[in-house]
Amino acid sequence: MQLFGIHAVEAALANDRRPVYAIQATENAAHKLAPLIAKRGLDPERVLPKALDRQLGADTVHQGVLLEAGPLDSLNLDDLDLSGTILVLDQVTDPHNVGAALRSAAAFGAKGLVMTQRHSPPLGGVLAKSASGALDLVPIVQVRNLAEGLAELGERGVSRLGLAEEAETALEDVPLTNPLALVLGAEGRGLRQLTRERCDVLCRISTASALASLNVSNAAAIALHWARVKTA
Predict the structure, then answer these.
(1) b (16+ CB within 10 A) / e for 149-173
(2) DSSP class of residue 190?
């Protein structure tokens, strides 16, 4: 896979579990990442920004660095620390949104991210850039069947809270305790029916007006903030 952007590449290089193979970098980017590049034993290919534009597309914000890397080892629910809060995404397909949600998960101390194997973006590229390094910081579990995964979490004592705009109860009015799973659906469609049925409670994020709807990454950040405050 290709990882680009200073923070995404820096986190990948610092993660000993991430296989890395080759790196292309401008002189400035190579200088910023020099200690990690040396630690990984890589010999960076010096390139001009235009060379990366040609490879990644002129609209890609690569910040002068492109890393050829391998995927992290696959994880399952047994590998997660279920003592705290985890984020669950139900077929969210936009890599920018997943990356931003993953960044919030790292910022607010979430123990992991659970997402579907299908109808989810690749764990690299745009998602990694949007996550700003969080892809190599937050454990990610991809499940084949999200409803079954939520059922398993429930059996392990995890409280499952689903976010739905039409829910009667506001998030700020719900008592939150760990272990906790915050479950969010794709924009437009929201949570699928089976996903809703596996949640212990559905609630909404209060906004000032009907026009103040939130995209999934914004909602994830707010929910993770409330979870951190209320479970502290």
Answers:
(1) bbebbeeeebbbbbbbeebeeebee
(2) B
- For the stretch 62-104, pLDDT in tens is 999 999 999 999 999 999 999 999 999 999 999 999 999 999 9
For 42, list phi and psi in degrees, rounded to 5: -95, 150
Residue 174 CA: distances (Å) to CA of 53, 70, 160, 163, 170: 48, 41, 12, 12, 7
Q: Helix 95-107 vs helix 216-231: angle between axes, to the nearest 10 degrees?
A: 20
d(CA 151, CA 139): 20
In three-state secondary structure terms, 79 is helix
Per-residue model confidence as pLDDT tens digits over 194-218: 999 999 999 999 887 665 578 999 9
Distance CA 13, CA 42 (A): 10
